[in-house]
Every structure is written in C-alpha cells, then in structure tokens.
Write the structure tokens for this entry.
Amino acid sequence: MKAKMFRALLPIAIVLTMVSCSSDSSESTTADNKLVTTYNYNDTELQLVTLINNYRQSIGLNTLQVINHISYKSEEHNEYMIDNKVVNHDYFYDRSENLIEVLGAEKVGENIAYNYLTAESAFNAWLNSPTHKANIEGDFTHFGISVTTDPATGRKYYTNMFIKKK
C-alpha cells in the first residue's frame, strides 16, 4: 500500500519541483527599483527577438516590443545561474515584482534554456515544450531577452521574460 501511494505521489512531487518559480531570499541586483534604459544586445539575442516576433506574427498574434529593462533583469538571472551553476527559475517572484513595480506589468512569464548553441535551437526547444510555447504564444505586449555565455565553460544561458502592460 505504501508503495502504491509513493508511486501515485511521486509524479506530483516531480511536477511541483519542476514548476517552482520562487524562493525565500532574493537575488542581489544593482537596479532593484530603477528603470534600466540601456542594454547592449548580442547577435543571438537579436535573432531570438526576430524569431519570437516572426513566429507570433505567423500565427496571427501581435508582435512584442522589446524593453531594455526586461533584458537587463533577464541578464541578472543568467548571471545568477552561472554563478550558482544552476538552471532554474529561482527568484522569479522577485523579478516579476520588479517588472510590476517598475514597468506596470500586470502579467509576467519566463522561459529559460541552457547549453543551446544557436538562437534557432533554443527557440525550437521552447516551441517543443508546452509551457514554454504557452509563454511565447501568451497574452503579452512586451518582452526582453538575455543570452549569456559562461566564461568558464563556454555554455550559453538563456532567459526570456514576457510582460503584459496595464
């Protein structure tokens, strides 16, 4: 009986662990509640902006406007993941609250990816994941993207955040 209960509860525990998006403490940031207006986009980030907007347009959705502040917050998360050697949504709540306070967002979503060599491969992986695809196709108005390469390993970390402004 215990084995049956364990087998029944294990998938639920795994799902809850995988979709957890917040933690108790916060990431340290340099621009907690100040609008960041400058962000230098690399080629991979610019390709993802184009891929996402072209895809949305191809299925009849609005294109999303890029906001530098969102890309900056995405980059902060990439740096956190690199520094801590993790791939997760830790502190999503803090990033979300920042976008609500600073930009007036009413809805926030986030996609992350790790170790994809190209913008196309990361984008295709997101489209093949129902939860990531739902964000790409979601009711959003703006977004930001950061692709950061770990200097120690050469592997890329991707964070893509979406918002709907009020």
The mean pLDDT is 86.
